[in-house]
Amino acid sequence: MDVELAANKKPAKELAKELHKLNGKIVEQEKIQNLKLKAAEKKQELEEKSQDTRLVSILVNAIELACPSLEETKVPQTQSSDSQLAPKETTKST
């Protein structure tokens, strides 16, 4: 009721300006809400990626603990790989 009384007392141009301002504020609030939603979505994505990274790190650590490292299991290679595959004695004395 008060709005109607106020509307009746103000000229149409002033009411139009106020309406335009209010619409502008609503549009700005909607933009802000959209930006907040996008920011929340990005934050969620980053948190999920962070969790994935942590899980990968945990898995790598578990594998390293469960298996000896490659450096420890390497066989020293003093000969070429062909000579390692060949039998050591190829001639037999009869």
From TrEMBL:
Keyword Coiled coil: yes
Residues covered by region (Disordered): 70-94
Keyword annotations from UniProtKB, A to Z: Coiled coil
Residue ranges the record marks as coiled coil: 12-52
Polar residues composition-biased segments: 75-84
Protein name stated in the entry: Uncharacterized protein
Source organism of the structure: Puccinia graminis f. sp. tritici
